[in-house]
UniProtKB/TrEMBL annotation:
Enzyme Commission no: 3.5.3.4
The Allantoicase domain, residue ranges: 26-179, 199-327
Catalysed reactions, as listed in the record: allantoate + H2O = (S)-ureidoglycolate + urea
Pathway where it operates: Nitrogen metabolism; (S)-allantoin degradation; (S)-ureidoglycolate from allantoate (aminidohydrolase route): step 1/1
Keywords: Hydrolase, Purine metabolism
Lineage: Bacteria, Bacillati, Actinomycetota, Actinomycetes, Streptosporangiales
Name this polypeptide is given: Probable allantoicase
HAMAP family, A to Z: Allantoicase
EC main group: hydrolase
Similarity field: Belongs to the allantoicase family.
Keyword Hydrolase: yes
InterPro entries listed in its UniProt record: Allantoicase, Allantoicase_dom, Galactose-bd-like_sf
Protein origin, superkingdom: Bacteria
Organism: Nonomuraea rosea
Length: 328
């Protein structure tokens, strides 16, 4: 098995990282300059934006996005509109997507994105006064289109600010990156070393045909099978697998392998292999799984590892993978 430690095996390295701003990961749009036509909270909803033509409410056509009123200052003297987003997972930002889906005659001509690191629980006024760094310079936008921008900045950020010039509608803002939470709160305590929220990341996988592998380490419980990781049907030799870079080097004591919602496409069995440099350790030998079932396995290996390879046989899906233990 080839060992992977980075996301270079995905088609788009920046998009292989999770969306740190996603509402389901704890993100929030904490303030906006205006939301007269459509609510700011739509910016970070999961899923593709939806649209139904000639669906009118009290504020006009209903849009699945954020839309501000028309500004009446052609020279821009009265400023521009903006939205402040608290990242659900603080971290290093690798890429930004500004999506103007369905906004065809009312999209902003241009936009920029800034980022800031503000610890604690700041108010909107405190955020506006923060030290902001431009991570996407002012760029031109098109209507009804996704705009992708890679970010080369190794600093850790907690918030982003989307600026639109001068006004208009944005359907979604995606902020892809590597989670960098403060793990000091777990000092002396156990934690889920495989949790996305704690800084773990799926760095490679054999197949992601039906759903993203990082779903397997996302917060909470999967509500349906699309919220887990599922592969295509394997027709040849071998088996499917994913590789998890742990939140930190640690000792794993309990593994949870959850096949909830996978009634007819759960793997027949699973094994876990820990990696630490050039060393491989068997954490869990090949073990039978049941469909639609949370499985819990106590692990006895005392040595710390940095990565865990999850092999499923021969294919199928997992709702969640939890690896509880202690940082080394």
């Amino acid at each position: 098995m080839t060992r992977f430690t980075g996301p270079s095996d995905f088609n788009r390295p920046d998009l292989a990282f999770p969306d740190l701003a996603l509402r389901t990961l704890g993100g929030s749009v904490v303030a906006a300059s205006d939301e007269s036509f459509a609510e700011k909270e739509s910016l970070i909803r999961p899923g593709r934006p939806e649209f139904a033509a000639e669906t009118f409410g009290n504020k006009g056509q209903v849009y699945d996005g954020w839309e501000t009123r028309r500004r009446r200052d052609p020279d821009g003297s009265q400023g521009h509109d903006w939205a402040l987003v608290r990242l659900g997972l603080p971290g290093v930002i690798r890429g930004v997507v500004i999506d103007t889906a369905w906004f065809k005659g009312n999209y902003p001509p241009s936009a920029s994105v800034e980022a800031a690191a503000v610890e604690g629980h700041p108010s909107p006024d405190e955020l506006l006064a923060a030290d902001w760094t431009e991570i996407v310079p002012l760029v031109e936008l098109k209507g009804d289109a996704e705009h992708h921008y890679e970010v080369a900045d190794e600093r850790r950020y907690t918030h982003v600010r989307l600026n639109i010039h001068p006004d208009g509608g944005i359907a979604r803002l995606r902020v892809h990156g590597e989670a960098r939470p403060d793990l000091s709160v777990y000092e002396g305590l156990g934690l889920d070393l495989a949790a996305l929220a704690n800084g773990a990341l799926v760095t490679a996988c054999s197949n992601d045909f039906y759903s993203a592998p990082n779903n397997a380490i996302a917060p909470g419980l999967a509500r349906h099978q699309a919220e887990g990781w599922e592969t295509a049907r394997r027709r040849g030799e071998g088996n499917d697998w994913l590789l998890i870079r742990l939140a930190g080097r640690g000792v794993i004591r309990l593994a949870e392998i959850d096949t909830t919602n996978l009634l007819f496409n759960a793997p027949g069995s699973v094994s876990l292999t820990g990696l630490d440099g050039d060393r491989e350790v068997e954490l869990l030998p090949r073990t039978r799984l049941q469909p639609d079932t949370p499985h819990r396995f106590r692990l006895d290996h005392p040595d710390p590892v940095t990565h865990v390879r999850v092999d499923i046989y021969p294919d199928g899906g997992l709702a969640r993978v939890r690896l509880h233990g202690h940082l080394a």
